[in-house]
Amino acid sequence: MIRSIQKAKIEYGDFQTPLELAEIVCQALIRLGVSPDVIIEPTCGVGNFIEAASLLFQSTKKIIGVEVNQKYLQEVRTKKQFIQDERIELRNADFFQFDWSSLINHLDGNILVLGNFPWVTNSQQGSIDGKNLPNKNNFQNHSGLDAITGKSNFDISEWMLIQVIQWLQGRDAGLAMLCKTSVSRKLLSHIHSRSLNLAYCATYKIDAKKYFDATVEACLLFCKFDANSKNYFCNVFSSLENSKYYQIGYRNNILIKDIASFETLSQFYDVNSETKWRSGIKHDCSSVMEFRKIGNAFVNKLGEVVELEEIYLFPLIKGSDVAQSRTEITDRFVLVTQRFVGEPTECIRDLAPKTWQYLESHASYLDNRKSKIYQNNPKFSIFGVGEYTFSFWKIAICGLYKKLEFRLIGTIFDKPAVFDDTVYFLSFEDERVAHKTFMLLRSTSAINFYSSLIFWDEKRPIKSSILNSLSLTALAESEDYAESNTW
What we know:
Blueprint: H1 2-11, H2 19-31, E1 38-41, H3 48-56, E2 62-67, H4 70-77, H5 80-84, E3 88-92, H6 100-105, E4 111-116, H7 122-127, H8 144-148, H9 156-168, E5 173-180, H10 181-193, E6 200-206, H11 208-212, E7 218-225, E8 233-237, E9 245-251, E10 254-256, H12 259-264, E11 278-279, H13 286-289, E12 290-294, E13 297-300, E14 305-306, E15 313-317, H14 319-323, E16 332-335, H15 347-351, H16 353-361, H17 363-367, E17 393-398, E18 407-409, E19 418-419, E20 423-428, H18 431-441, H19 444-451, H20 464-467, H21 472-477
Parallel strand pairs: 1-2, 1-4, 2-3, 4-5, 6-8, 15-19
Antiparallel strand pairs: 5-7, 6-7, 8-9, 9-10, 11-20, 12-13, 12-16, 13-14, 15-16, 17-18, 17-20
């Protein structure tokens, strides 16, 4: 029974908004001048937003709550506020099946969509065989590897918010929804990419740990819509009470974390920069492909002591090693079966027969890798490999850590160091150029430039697209480096 309740809580992203927070949100909206004719809460749960709106929005003519859980609606109907307020209308319906367009089109005046959608992703739904999600489709329009290696995962609330945006297009309307901060940015990106109408957008940080016991960056997302405006920016406030903010928005079709800071360093931005940051090796089978060297023996993650030729073994630096500056020595090694993506692997049989025999004996592990990228590729294929993998000098940074700390890494055991796929790196054959580039990347200008672009609350805040946007040539030619310009 307990497991069934927990499954339902996960499936429906069941973070009921405390009445205290619902009232604080409504009070903040009133201070912003929000005065809707109709309020809709599309997933009203136990009705705390309905109750707060009924108490505080006295001039509102109608308050509509929709909820799939009949037990929650029964609880709402027992509340004193519902009994006393004839403006409240409750409907038992599934968000994903309900005819929202028909409802919206029959409403007059200014509409405010208010509430708190489920905080759950489609992959979490899949892990529990949950059904509370829309029909599956690649609504974010990812293509190629992005669509099949994880970027197609999304928050259910993101999909639901996009539907709300569609309802409100061309109307004098507002949206006020609690959500993950990362979801609020995805919504702004969606609006921008589709050239939809947006009059104003702001986020106000909330304490998700206090109100929901959730360790996640969360906010109140507030949007105003009209028939014409296309204002693709968002003012970011540190709380519902604070009047100070910074602004995120678009420059060169890129979402900038802090527009004011970026503008002071925009001379270093180059969407066509020749800089090419690469990601480390992707093999999706660490139990077979990664080893620790203990004495003169190699031990895989299955605990097996194996005998391999060293021709295909390379010293491995993990993302955590890069972040914590453990980059001069390692006891970790990885099998690098190809020198470029798609290279035939049969040559291993002749060049390293023990390695080939090892791979053959563990083929079931490698053949069962789930990612589609391995399909129709040579046996024992890996990705994230190329000529750059085997350069003797590299500058590396881990994409998962919330700090801009670059590492300069040379050879280990007279072999090129290689990285896992949480690491981004530049490769160099010339040690002198590597050192000069390393100094540039550690400069105040470079750190401030990257800081204006990085959203630190994301799961992988540092991305290759951000790293590649810095023109090292422009940075080297700037005043700080004019005297040593060799670029």
